[in-house]
Amino acid sequence: MNPTSGLHLEENRPLAPLTTLGLGGPARWSVAVSSEAELVEALEWAKGRQLPVFVLGGGSNLVVSDAGFPGLVVQPALRGVSRSFQGDQCILRAAAGESWDGFVAEAVAMDCAGVECLAGIPGTVGGTPVQNVGAYGQEVADTILRVRVLDRTTLQFHELTAEECRFSYRQSIFNTTARDRYIVTAVEYGLLPGGEPCIRYADLERAFAGSARPTLAEVADKVRAIRRSKGMLLVSGDPDTKSAGSFFRNPIVSAAQHAALGRQLHTEPPCYPASPGSVKIPAAWLLEQAGFVRGYRMGHVGISSRHTLALIHCGNGTTAELLALRDRIVATVEQRFAIRLEMEPVLLGF
Ligand SMILES: Cc1cc2nc3c(=O)[nH]c(=O)nc-3n(C[C@H](O)[C@H](O)[C@H](O)COP(=O)(O)OP(=O)(O)OC[C@H]3O[C@@H](n4cnc5c(N)ncnc54)[C@H](O)[C@@H]3O)c2cc1C
Asked: Do 196 and 335 have their domain in common?
């Protein structure tokens, strides 16, 4: 604790245990803030010392450098979920520090549809708008109404509409045009009481084929079970879950590039529609075609034995090793298919 401030500041706190990968060095300073006033105080403290600030949620989409971070890491620990009704919508407003999976469980228990397929995603509520979290046919952009933010430059709070957040595939203003400008303190989701579950994804369609309409709870449970089978649900002791989730975004290529790839490989590459004239190719498929298969190892890091896109830390490793594996994959895929993969997790301290 720093004696000159009411904030509980810590010095040289290791960041690895605060991330799902379990890699990286310490933060020069860190603080958990449990109110908006404390958040402002923390930013003023850092500004007075000209320290860079990083906002840490659940650390589930993060790669921390081995040297750590020379500034202040702020963890929004704001809690609480409130409920109101507007027309046929149930509006749940959750504070940024709430566990995302806990929030989904609460929404499902209230029989409110809209986030049931996002069960089992690790991290905090505040992290979800950043990369427009999505899975199994849903993404938070489908239900987010407003995002309450603190503007780091003016120290003013604003309520951004979903439109202002400009959500798209794994993107929003928070990780593109306004990166590092805002800190999310609360998110408002508009859900449908008694609404039908979303069963759009092939795995879910198969699981419920021929049965009567499942409940939201059954769909959320099935999503968690599928995620668990793929090592994409955090389960203590499961080595495949020491990851940051999917490490690469699915690349979007032109229809002509897709056709050329098919001619090169003498097979029709799998794809999903993206914007007009372009398609999304599963990054996992590209990795496998390039020889990076499940269970692949390189020193103390590797690829999950159950999910090709999850790079994992096998223990006693370093971030440098993980990034060397990333570089090997990116270079090989680019050399073979002229497609440059982009990494999904955020880098800190580089
Ligand atoms: C096993 C596993 C499975 C996963 N599955 C999925 C999946 O299916 N779909 C998916 O989309 N993602 C998935 N992820 C990635 C990750 O869980 C999500 O991106 C999650 O929303 C990250 O939230 P977080 O709180 O952990 O953020 P962190 O990892 O702590 O931070 C990520 C980024 O968000 C910023 N951030 C965090 N909180 C705030 C805030 N309050 N205000 C402003 N910026 C903030 C950080 O500064 C950083 O830039 C998975 C990860 C793992 C480990």
From this structure: no
Given 76, 109, 134, which residue is the final one in a domain? 76
Summarize pLDDT for 109-159 with one digit per residue, the tens: 999 999 999 999 999 999 999 999 999 999 999 999 999 999 999 999 999
Tell whether ligand 1 has an atom less than 6 A from the beta carbon of residue 129. Answer: no
Q: Is 133 in the pocket of ligand 1 (CB under 6 A)?
A: yes
Nearest-10 Cα torsion for 292, 134, 245, 256: 20
Catalytic residue numbers? 170, 246, 344
100-109 and 216-229 helices, crossing angle to 10°: 150
Q: Is 231 near ligand 1, meaning CB less than 6 Å away?
A: no
Q: Whose CA is nearest to atom 4 of ligand 1?
A: 245
Domain hosting 306: range is 239-252+282-348
Quick check: helix, strand or coil at residue 189? Answer: strand
Domains identified in the chain, total number: 3
Cα–Cα distance measured from residue 131 to residue 179, given in angstroms and rounded to the nearest whole number: 11
> Rounded to the nearest whole angstrom, what is the distance from the C-alpha of residue 58 to the centroid of ligand 1?
7
Instruction: Average pLDDT across each block of 10 residues of the chain; the chain has 350 residues. List them in order.
Output: 71 98 98 98 97 98 98 98 96 98 98 98 98 96 98 97 96 96 98 96 90 93 96 94 96 94 93 89 96 98 97 98 98 96 97
Whole-prediction pTM: 0.95
Which residue matches tokens 């408002």?
A: 188
Whether 245 lines ligand 1, by a CB cut-off of 6 Å, is yes
Domain termination site, one of 57, 76, 95: 76
Residue 330 lies in a domain: yes
